[in-house]
Specification:
Layout: E1 2-6, H1 11-22, E2 26-31, H2 38-42, E3 46-49, H3 59-62, E4 67-70, E5 73-74, H4 81-101, E6 106-110, H5 136-155, E7 159-164, E8 166-168, H6 173-184, E9 190-191, E10 197-198, E11 200-202, H7 203-215, E12 223-226, E13 232-233, H8 234-245, E14 253-254, H9 256-272, H10 283-290, H11 298-304, H12 312-325, H13 332-338, H14 342-349, E15 369-370
Parallel strand pairs: 1-2, 1-4, 2-3, 4-6, 5-15, 6-7, 7-12, 8-11, 9-14
Antiparallel strand pairs: 10-13
Helix pairs in contact: 1-7, 4-5, 6-8, 8-12, 9-10, 10-14
Amino acid sequence: MDVLITGGNGLLGRHLVEALQDRGDSVRVLALPEEDIRWLRDRGITVHRGDVRWPDTLATPMSGATAVVHLAGMMGVWRSLQDYRDVNVTGTRNVCGAALAERVSRIVHVSSWTVYGMDLGRPAQEDFLLKPFHDPYAITKTEGDLAVQRMIAEDHLPAVIIRPGTFIGPGDHLHFGRMADRLRAGKGIIIGGGDNALPFVYVTDVVQGLLLALDCEHAVGQAYNISNDHPMTQQQLLEAIAHDIGVQAPTLHVPYRALYLAGGAAERTAALASSRGQPVLTRLGVKLFGTDNRHAIDKAQRELGYIPRVPLRDGLRRCAEWYRLREQPDSPSDALAGGLSALCALRAASQTCAPGPLACGRCRHCCYSWSRRSR
């Protein structure tokens, strides 16, 4: 199989590239013009420079490919709804249109669990009505998901939609790295009671789901949740990370409602200031870490044969091993580029000192990020 990966330079893309090469597939990657692609070149990957927003840069990378995995997406930056739409909706349509024009036989579109909304009171299933939280990332990932569904129905697009959980793994600066940095600095908090389930999944389990979506003939036209059916609670997750990196676990509980209201105020202040800098706190960040979010995977298990192979506790240990071996923590500029986890920002907001570059950012549960900085 000859596979084109858009957004293949992030955490998920790196693991997918390795998995495809390991099984003998030919891999090519679409990368932004300014991205650092040395590791791809070292692996013998053909790299095409382009942007999903620019249709004329897609035909050449797509030519001759038998499959496309569309990972590229905007996230983790405080930008307008239109900016998000340009990448997550128009960009998705461009990729799918180019795939149709080049007669690609399989497209796997990576959507997001946020399309369902949050705090639903029961595990989200694939046939649930899509009701995203009012946030540019969640709104546009939903619109992109619906655009692919329409192209499947109207244009016979041979696509499969994957809605992954928030994935972690070695090299994960956006999720594990940020939380670990804050815990190590003694600035972790627990939102509310801490007994809410967080929808994390280990990155190689998401890769497994993508490979199954590429290979399974009857998957075309379907959507699948790819996550872990044994989630950890917020408090369990933070205590495990603290234990594995050798620091004290957080004990401070901050009321959910108060933080949610503070997030709204911070967003309004940023809007009035017409700032592109992320607010120190957002309502999305509070909901992401402070509400209970579970996702049913029985459809993927039944139809694709998907089985989560890495328990979350083991996955955290692997992340911690990578974290301890890092040469140095992320620089402040990296923190600004990628954004911090919501938890990091919430702790900063609870302190009297100036928060500095501690923006909680958008959901970074899809580390296939499109950004102006390579990961």
